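Journal club prep, notes for RB
We'll compare a predicted complex against what the paper describes. Inputs for the adenosine monophosphate case:
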Amino acid sequence: MDHLLNVLIIGGGGREHALAWKLSRSASLGNLWATHRMNPGIAALTKDLGFDYETAKSYRLGQFCKDNEIDLVVVGPEGPLAAGLADELGSDETFVFGPCRAGAQLEADKSWAKQIMRAANVPTAEARTFDNAEEARRYVMARDEACVVKASGLAAGKGVYVACSAAEAAEAIDEIMVRGAHGDAGRTIVIEERLQGPEVSVFALVDGRDVLVLDTCQDHKRVGEGDTGPNTGGMGAYSPTPFMDADLMSLVQREILIPTVDALRREGIEYRGVLYAGLMLTPGGPKVLEYNVRFGDPECQVLMPRMDGDLARILHATAAGQLDQIVDEVEFSPQHTVCVVLASEGYPGRCQTGVPITGLEEANAIDEVQIFHAGTRAGKRPDEVVTAGGRVLNVVASGATLFEARDHAQRAIDLIHFDGMMYRRDIGHRALGARQ
Ligand code: AMP
Ligand code: GLY
């Protein structure tokens, strides 16, 4: 590129704040625009579109990209990708980081994703697809063992039921297919063999053909300490993780990621963006639990601070199909990072919003700490920030060791307050336990 890159970022959570933060530190960045400037963290780093993204039609956004010579659109969440935003905005001048609608089915249609995995010969749980509740019930009763029942469509991470018995599985089938807990996303379900082992997330940049695996990290999905309570979007993450070493990463690249990208190409899909493999490390080797078509949230928040290189250039090259031009630029620092999610009371259920938050500036002033806004907005008083969702803030800290990073994060958390604030004190516990 011989000019600075104009970038538009879509999405309004902590993941997008982390991406905007890293983009804004890129030497190659020109202007940075954002659709979700309700998030004060994103607003502080970006320019306003001048119209409301939620009510605008995609041609309005397309026109905006033309008028403002946008080189790159970075799409954070899966929803717009599954709805075909990359197909609509992509052009010879504007590249989109994030797959086309067909590619986004990897996340938006679990039944189809299983077909791709089979075609690619990728290790994954055995599975069958059903669109009839009675047949599904008969199947689980006949097998009479633990299994996992999943709504096939997008269900914001809530459509997965890990069942210990056939009766529990039958209950999940009723919940999804009869009572319609996830609407149309549950018209089709996937019933899988239940796997055992530690879980890790692997993120790779994919430019349609080539695959570049990023450094390792691990999420904490359960709401409670010691991995108890209901599943959430993620209560914290840390990077790197001792559960993945270089050999395992190269195995995942060789046997899982590359065959998947090849299988997509055979379907005529040129996949560009992040491919996120949720893996279970079973005694028989790593197996894919699910694919996502975006960065994990909060995994992105621990990867970005460790990533060296010019993110605007890296994402642009990926979206342009030129990963080979930047492979040498993508490096990760030896620092450890941890992200602790500060959530509202009641999360992952209903939460009160509009609660004032204090201490943000003091916490952000700690050298080793970066605060990303997940669910906040500006309050009525000048400089006031209030809660606006379940996951409110991401406290990200770095250190020479995971212990150190956790200490820095805790120092920052001690300075922050909002009524009902809750968080897990044990982020990274599996890694710390594994090392002892
Ligand atoms: P998913 O959204 O498909 O990753 O599923 C959410 C969570 O359900 C995962 O993080 C796992 O903890 C669990 N899970 C999903 N599929 C399986 C499986 N086949 N066996 C065991 N646990 C699973
Ligand atoms: N943290 C898990 C996810 O983003 O799906």
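Talking point for the session: The CA atoms of residues 210 and 323 lie 7 Å apart.
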